[in-house]
Design goal:
With about 200 residues, this protein is α/β, with parallel strands linked by helices. Helix content is about 45%, strand content about 20%. The longest helix is centred in the C-terminal third of the chain and has 21 residues.
Length: about 200
């Protein structure tokens, strides 16, 4: 009797600060027993962090070598300071085993994944409104007024960029967290079922 091999899939979730993206990513991971991708970075390791668990900590020189060797699925420089990237090999290994892998990356990374792995499934998380996004950024209590305004402006630009980029398959409005998670999970399951039923 033939058994259907499970279909691996790469799931990309992006969204601006304050939209609840990270919470959605973790809930989707739990619901689908997905594997969360570990990023490589050139930033220094802090005391509580473990190499290969929190990040792959790589020197700037080695990171650039790996870029030239085309070992990254996507990579970017953040705040003109440190570089971050998703290594191809761990992603390929997870997908080959028939598992789901989740990436939590920005729009720039999402566009690169769109080009390099168009069969991936890409989501962008939206706030219900600009007013609600500003309220959430303020309610976090992490930033002063100038920082909040800067994050709010950056978030609006990121949303516009994501809409215009053509890199995302689905835009999920996080008005109700449970519903946003359920909608995302349902889309992923539908894609898996379609892939498994295709000869």
């Amino acid at each position: 009797m033939l058994t259907t091999r499970p279909q691996g899939a790469l799931i990309v979730i992006s969204g601006p600060s304050g939209v609840g993206k990270t919470t959605i990513v973790h809930k989707v991971r739990e619901e689908l027993n997905a594997i969360f991708s570990i990023s490589a970075t050139t930033r220094p390791k802090s005391d509580p962090e473990t190499d290969g668990v929190d990040y792959y900590f790589i020197s700037p020189e080695r990171f650039e070598e790996m870029v030239q060797e085309k070992l990254f699925l996507e990579h970017a420089e953040v705040f003109s300071c440190h570089r971050y990237g998703t290594l191809k090999e761990p992603v390929d290994n997870v997908l080959a085993a028939g598992n789901l892998m989740l990436l939590d990356i920005d729009v720039q990374g999402g566009m690169q994944v769109h080009r390099n792995m168009p069969e991936s499934l890409r989501f962008f998380i939206l706030p219900p409104s600009e007013e609600e996004l500003l309220r959430r950024l303020t309610a976090r209590g992490r930033d002063d007024a100038d920082s909040i305004e800067r994050r709010f402006s950056e978030a609006k630009q990121e949303i516009n960029f994501a809409r215009e980029s053509g890199a995302y398959d689905f835009f999920i409005v996080n008005d109700n967290l449970d519903l946003a998670v359920a909608e995302t999970v349902a889309i992923i399951k539908k894609r898996q079922n379609t892939a498994q039923s295709t000869p």
